[in-house]
Amino acid sequence: MIETRRPPQNVRREIVPLTSGGTELALHLWRPRGRSKGAVFYFHGLQSHAGWLWEVGPRFADNDIAFFVLDRRGSGISGGDRRDVPDVDTIVGDYANAVAHARRWIGDDAPLSLFGHCLGGSFLAALLHHPGFTVRHEAAIFCSTWLGRLHAVLGEEERAALAADRSLEPWDAGLKSADFTDDPAYRHFIDHDDLAVRQLTRRSRATLLALERLYLAPGRAETRFPDVPAAFVSGLSDPIVDLDATRRVFHDLFPGRGLTLQFPTDRHYLFYTDVRDDLVDWTSAYTLLQGLDRDV
């Protein structure tokens, strides 16, 4: 296990029940006992859920940052069909409602960063480019996410067939814990996590493709509002993500204002590597700086 650099201090954890489209979802919150100077809203990946952040949340709280994680519909302890991602409007609506709750909780003065990891980055990009999303936020951070992956690996005919697929047949992503981390304890946790979603229905992949189409639509990047700072963070290499391909999409989405940052690891899930604390501290500082820029 990675050594603890500093023990959590002023930390409180809550699970807030949110009802969205008739389904009860679990919004997890780690918050300082004192005033929160900012907040990070985290979009988890395909198989993970808020339980994967049991060490990360307290560290953000120690930095006076409130840390929100929504268990996606059908994931973690949220309601909904396991292994099934609903239609675009439903999933985007879930996130829009949860982010709006986070904004109300922290108030109008604290900066809010939206942080998407792996598949969560695609959900984040789709949310940002959905015309119905109007919640104010100060920054967007994409971590180890392959933006536009299905468009990159599938040809036009394959994408058309995928878009038309409404099958409930399971599809296995083939994810390996060794790609996420070198740490044996974390690998054991991933391999034996009863709440992990390891398969999706084939119609769910059609939804993921539709999400990509939402943020890859021509002209969408230029019309997105508000115009906030954005960053793409990753390791030096990634066994799951084509970093060169995703960074090209990232810079297309955020032309002239996209920051890229690499941490010294070759594993996919940075929070389960030695760079965890540095990533938490960088994200905290990046979030707080947006509040300073707004006050100037």
Notable characteristics:
296 residues, alpha/beta, 8-stranded mixed beta sheet, two-stranded antiparallel sheet, globular, Hydrolase_4, Serine aminopeptidase S33 domain-containing protein, MAG_DAG_Lipase, AB_hydrolase_fold
Structural description of this entry:
The protein has eleven helices and ten strands. It is an alpha/beta fold. The longest helix has 20 residues, at 276-295. The protein has an eight-stranded mixed beta sheet with strand order 1-2-4-3-5-6-9-10, with helices on both faces.
Low-confidence stretches: none
How many separate helices?
11
Number of strands: 10
SSE order:
EEEHEHEHEHHEHHEHHEHEH
Radius of gyration: 18 Å
Structural class: alpha/beta
Quaternary arrangement of the chains shown?
single chain
Overall shape: globular
For the sheet with most strands, the description reads: 8 strands, mixed
- Termini distance? 42 Å
- Proportion of beta-strand residues: 15-25%
Q: Percent of residues in helical segments?
A: 25-40%
Q: Let me know the average pLDDT.
A: 92
- Spatial strand arrangement across the major sheet: 1-2-4-3-5-6-9-10
Domain Serine aminopeptidase S33: 35-253
InterPro entries: AB_hydrolase_fold, Hydrolase_4, MAG_DAG_Lipase
Organism: Streptomyces siamensis
Protein name: Serine aminopeptidase S33 domain-containing protein
